Amino acid sequence: MWSLIVIGLIWYGLFGKNDPKTVKTVQSKKNNPGCATVLILIFALSILGSVSKVFWGLAAVILALGLPVMLIGKLISAANREATRRNSKEYQEIPENFNLTQSVSKRQKILSKFNDKFELNLSDEQMERIVDASYMSYSWEKEIYDMTKEYNHPAEWYKAETPWLRAYLRAFPAMNITSDFEMQRSIVEEAFKQILTELPPGDFLTIDSAIEETNRRFFTLFDETTYMIMFRYMQAKGMKLEIPNGLHKTQESEADRLAREYDEKVAEEVKARRKKSVRRRKMTEEESREEALDELQAFAEEQMGSMSDEELERLIRAYDKMMKEEKEAAGDDDPDQGLRPSRG
Hints:
The protein is mainly α. Helix content is 68%, strand content 0%. It has 14 helices and no strands. It has helices at 2-14, 20-29, 33-48, 53-87, 89-92, 104-117, 124-133, 138-146, 163-171, 181-198, 207-218, 224-236, 254-302, 309-330. Helix 13 runs antiparallel to helix 14 (309-330). The longest helix is centred in the last third of the chain and has 49 residues, at 254-302. The chain is rod-shaped.
């Protein structure tokens, strides 16, 4: 029994620690009282049987035969994995060759340490998902590998083929992480598009004001670097965006606002008076014409014997022509002249 435990430990050290499912199972059993009880029982039985030389001899034989086989199997597995890596299209698109540890726990440690150092917002569940994805996606594996490097400044981390993803990991407290790297790209693009559509940078006076409003509205943690990464990435994707430019925008002071409102009020008052004056003038013209026509009608009745209908019609036309000429001679004087109030 003890020999089986030894073999099991050797197998875990060579292979099991590189399998995410096996590591999860072992970690879940560490704090299990039932498992601890079984191990103590096995240990007690092994102590009772330790007097048997046959037991130790069998354990030595199994270890001597099993260890070389496991080592050879590990070498073959590593060679196959490297051959698969070299032939992968995704791996070939990554310009830098890399070789990340195959240990699940070590990858988790790398990611957790980097998450704390650079103040990312990855939860334990999200980090676990990224580690699992790194065994299926060379792009995710490369992301963890780059976290093993030393950076003198956080901005150096963004100098890579995936600045969009790193800006997303840094600026979004609530993230959606998936093992499919292309789907992850779509998720990030959609998040960026929503922000830049609802809050276009060109509507703000400065980048700082755009960042402040974005963080307030969407509960994000953008700084100038991550915001401009988002801006340039979506601009390259064909989204029409403008840089905030305070030189082309001026904030209206309180005095300017009051002056503008005064001018608008005066303009409305002048417009109303003009309409009223035009209506009054038209009414006066119509009343004058009606009065003149009444006089012509009375004159025609007095001269009925000597004036025909044709002559009366000709007289009316002559009157209308005279009024038209007087109107043109008077010109189109502004009826509101002198009405506009002045600002003292």
